[in-house]
Each structure stands twice: as C-alpha cells, then as structure tokens.
Predict the structure.
Amino acid sequence: MIGARSFIAAILLGWGLAAPAELAAAEAAAELAGLPPGPGREAVYYTCRACHSEKQFTQQRMGRAAWDELITNMVEENGMAEPEPWARNLMLNYLASHFGEAGEDDWAGLPASPGREEVFYLCQACHSLAIVKQQGLSREDWDETLVWMVEEQGMPEMDAETEQSVLDYLATHFGPDRPRGQATATP
Ligand code: HEC
Ligand code: HEC
C-alpha cells in the first residue's frame, strides 16, 4: 500500500504535477510510523534517519545517560552534526521515554491484562520484547507467528489454554489498528 502510494506519487511528480496534499500527509505519517508519537519524534526521525534506518536503534533499551553517550558517539565517530543543546535535549527526552530502560517490575512496558505474564516469560526467553511490541498483527497473523516460533525457532509448545491467553493478549494489545511501537494502554 505504501509502495503503491509512493509509486503513484512518483508518477505524479514525474509528470510535473503536484502530489495531492492528502497523499503527501499520508506518506509522511506512514514513514514516521516506525517511531511512536510524542514530542521529539520528528527531531529524532529526521536527525537519525539521515544516515540509517530507525531500526538501528528502536530495539535498544537504555537510560538517558546512555542515550546521551550514544549521541556523542554518533557525533565523534560517525560524522553526525553536533546538535543544538535544545535539540539534543528534545531527542534525549524522546529516546529515554520511548526506548528507556525497563525496570525490574514494569513488565518491559507490556500493558496489564490477562496473558501478560505468559507473554513476558515465554517470549523473552529468546529475544527482546521490543520485537513483539513493535508488531501490529491480526489474531490470525499472531497465530502464524506462534506456529513459526514453535516449528522453526525452537519455542516450547504451549498447552491450549496458554496459547489462547497469549493469542488474546497479543491480538488485543498489538493488533493492526494502532500506531506501531505503541501499546493500547499503559500499565
Ligand atoms: C552522520 C551519520 C549518522 C547519524 C546522523 C546518526 N548515526 Fe547512528 N550510526 C551511524 C553509523 C555510520 C553507524 C555504524 C553502523 C554500523 O556499524 O553498522 C551508526 C550506528 C548506530 C547504532 C548502533 C551502533 C551503536 O553504537 O550502538 C545506533 C544505536 C545508532 N547509530 C543510533 C543513532 C541515533 C539514535 C541517531 C540520532 C540521534 C543516530 N544514530 C544518528 C551514523 C549516523
Ligand atoms: C526458542 C526461542 C524463541 C522463543 C521462545 C520466541 N521466539 Fe520469537 N523469534 C525467535 C527467533 C530466533 C527469531 C528471529 C527469526 C528470524 O528473523 O529469522 C524470532 C523472531 C520473532 C518475531 C519477529 C518476526 C519478524 O517479522 O521479524 C516476532 C514477532 C516474534 N519472534 C514473536 C515471538 C513471540 C510473541 C514469542 C512468545 C510467545 C516468541 N517470539 C518467542 C526465537 C524465539
């Protein structure tokens, strides 16, 4: 869908016609969708995406000081322009609040509801929950993902009751109708 839109936009631009504003807005929203909404989102998007995908950092979880160090590192080692202090501050606030350190007892940001405990322990055995939280899948697609985890990735098979509760949880909180990277509710 995004591909088709860019294609149409490219044709329109190629013919020298202005792309409709609606189309441009939809494209901008889709592009930013890899980053959860909040103050500083655009600053991070346009600064960090100048050199690499946002995927380079959206799976990281660390505190503000570590994000600060990372920015210093991007400037000193990778040629990023030194940001203005206010811009650095804005980006740090954004990064620390959306990609901050998960506390011992905050379930790595998983919203509270039945099935959370199972998802937390089961999925984290092999990888970060960030991989899970950034998806927006239908129940059917979640079902397929779980089958894939069991058949191809070595996840232990769940009993029927656990499976239902994990599926309910994932489809409710990480379904297709929400901005990627954002939970439906905070605990
Ligand atoms: C001027 C280019 C440039 C800009 C701007 C930039 N980066 Fe990078 N970044 C790099 C390069 C080059 C690498 C190394 C890539 C590799 O080794 O694969 C990198 C790697 C990374 C890594 C992974 C390696 C590590 O050190 O942990 C993270 C995380 C990262 N960047 C985050 C960010 C964030 C967040 C921003 C915005 C605040 C940003 N980058 C802006 C060039 C840049
Ligand atoms: C035994 C290890 C293991 C367990 C347990 C596990 N996974 Fe995974 N998972 C993997 C591996 C390995 C990959 C990377 C596979 C690849 O990209 O080829 C992965 C990738 C994923 C992806 C990314 C798919 C994509 O499109 O990139 C999702 C989503 C996912 N797992 C969901 C889950 C969920 C939900 C659970 C818990 C119910 C879970 N996993 C438990 C091993 C596991």
Observations:
- Residues 64-78 form the longest helix (15 residues).
- Residues 9 and 160 are 47 Å apart (CA to CA).
- Residues 47-48, 50-52, 56-57, 60, 70-71, 73-74, 78-80, 91 surround heme C (ligand 1) (CB under 6 Å).
- Residues 1-33 form one domain.
